């Protein structure tokens, strides 16, 4: 049985390690989880991303969720930011596409061009 | 949205976007009194009375404030269709409590759905927030703290994403236990 103080210490340590990893993170993935995203299936997309990352043992990649990006018709949307700070935005992502993003983009370094949504 | 757990995920995202550092998600699923109660409490930036009125109106809302949108009014509509209601208690600088009730035997009540997916995805996706999830039925209750993931990560010396399958399994098992016990 751990006390709350123990858990806090563990969390702090874990967070520090993760912050260190974030510095060297190859990719940062963010899933849009606004009302529109959730209604379009963003929860399953995020579950697929987490599952695929764990299965493939993907290192140095963080996953977070954001709100509505303002392109509700393109949901579910996933953004992948590389070490060079360039962000690729994917639109209408299915769980299958999400798994490909992990396999091909995050692991293979190859952008899935046909699924990219151009925000400009 | 087909599952209440998706609406819950949506409402909790409001708290995350309101820069909360502490969020409590509490469900009471009590057949004995025919009540499902969902409470989401945060220490985020809070809202003025005037803003509280606005966030519940789907047609007057603007998108300049992140907590404003369709989510709350949609959740309130479901609650009202199920013989319940949604109330917001909020104070600027202190936080917000969203309390939603439903009649459990109401035919309009959507399934709660995959709470484990909503909860674990929230915990993983917002690691700066300290979450607590509590679920209670007539047969028992359990709580799940987001520190669980970090403790597991330290214990197994694995990455945070590797804790996800176990966390979901654990949650589903706990939910099963408090739901399936014979009355």
Q: Which homologous superfamily in CATH is the superfamily of chain A?
A: Glutaredoxin
Number of helices of chain B: 6
Q: How many β strands of chain B by DSSP?
A: 6
**Regions with little confidence, pLDDT below 50 for 5+ residues of chain A:** none
How many strands, which pairing sense, and closed or not: the largest β-sheet of chain B? Answer: 6 strands, mixed
* CATH architecture annotation name of chain A: 3-Layer(aba) Sandwich
Unreliable parts of chain B: none
CATH topology (fold) name of chain B: Heat Shock Protein 90
As an assembly, this protein is heterodimer
Rounded mean pLDDT score of chain B:
91
Provide the CATH top-level class of chain A: Alpha Beta
Q: Give the overall average pLDDT of chain A.
A: 88
What class would the helix/strand composition of chain B place it in? alpha+beta
SSE class of chain A: alpha+beta
What keyword list fits this structure?
heterodimer; A: four-stranded mixed beta sheet; B: 183 residues; Heat Shock Protein 90; six-stranded mixed beta sheet; 6 helices; globular
What does this structure look like?
The complex is a heterodimer of chains A (about 120) and B (about 180). Chain A is α+β, with helices and mostly antiparallel strands and about 120 residues long. Chain A has one domain (about 25-115): Glutaredoxin, CATH 3.40.30.10. Helices cover about 45% and strands about 20% of the residues of chain A. Chain A contains four helices and four strands. In chain A, a hairpin with a 4-residue loop joins strand 3 and strand 4 (about 85-90). Chain A is globular. The termini of chain A are far apart. Chain B is an alpha+beta fold. Chain B has one domain: Heat Shock Protein 90 (2-Layer Sandwich), CATH 3.30.565. In chain B, about 40% of the residues lie in helices and about 25% in strands. Chain B has six helices and six strands, in the order αββααββαββαα. Chain B has helices at about 5-15, 50-55, 70-80, 115-125, 145-155, 165-180; strands at about 20-30, 35-40, 85-90, 95-105, 130-135, 140-145. Chain B has a six-stranded mixed sheet with strand order 3-4-2-1-5-6. The radius of gyration of chain B is 17 Å and the shape is globular. Classes of the chains: A alpha+beta (about 120), B alpha+beta (about 180). The interface between A and B is medium-sized, with 31 and 34 residues.
């Amino acid at each position: 049985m751990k006390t709350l103080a123990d858990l806090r210490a563990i969390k702090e340590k874990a967070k520090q390690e993760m912050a260190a990893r974030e510095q060297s993170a190859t990719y940062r993935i963010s899933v849009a989880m606004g009302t529109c995203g959730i209604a379009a299936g963003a929860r399953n997309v995020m579950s697929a991303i987490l599952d695929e990352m764990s299965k493939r043992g993907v290192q140095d990649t963080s996953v977070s969720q954001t709100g509505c990006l303002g392109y509700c018709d393109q949901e579910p949307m996933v953004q992948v930011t590389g070490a060079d700070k360039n962000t690729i935005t994917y639109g209408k992502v299915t769980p299958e596409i999400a798994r490909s993003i992990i396999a091909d983009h995050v692991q293979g370094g190859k952008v899935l061009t046909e699924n990219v949504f151009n925000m400009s | 949205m087909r599952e209440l757990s998706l609406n819950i995920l949506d409402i909790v995202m409001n708290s995350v976007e309101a820069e909360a550092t502490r969020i409590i998600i509490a469900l009471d699923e009590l057949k004995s009194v025919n009540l499902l109660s969902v409470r989401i409490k945060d220490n985020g930036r809070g809202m003025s009375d005037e803003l509280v009125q606005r966030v519940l109106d789907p047609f007057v809302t603007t998108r300049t404030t992140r907590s404003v949108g369709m989510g709350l009014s949609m959740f309130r509509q479901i609650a009202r269709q199920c013989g319940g209601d949604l109330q917001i208690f909020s104070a600027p600088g202190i936080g917000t409590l969203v309390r939603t009730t439903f009649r459990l035997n109401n035919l309009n009540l959507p399934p709660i759905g995959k709470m484990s997916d909503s909860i674990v995805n929230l915990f993983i996706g917002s690691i700066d927030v300290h979450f607590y999830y509590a679920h209670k039925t007539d047969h028992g209750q359990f709580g799940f703290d987001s520190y669980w993931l970090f403790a597991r990560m330290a214990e197994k010396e694995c990455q945070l994403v590797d804790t996800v399958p176990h966390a979901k399994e654990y949650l589903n098992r706990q939910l099963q236990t408090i739901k399936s016990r014979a009355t």
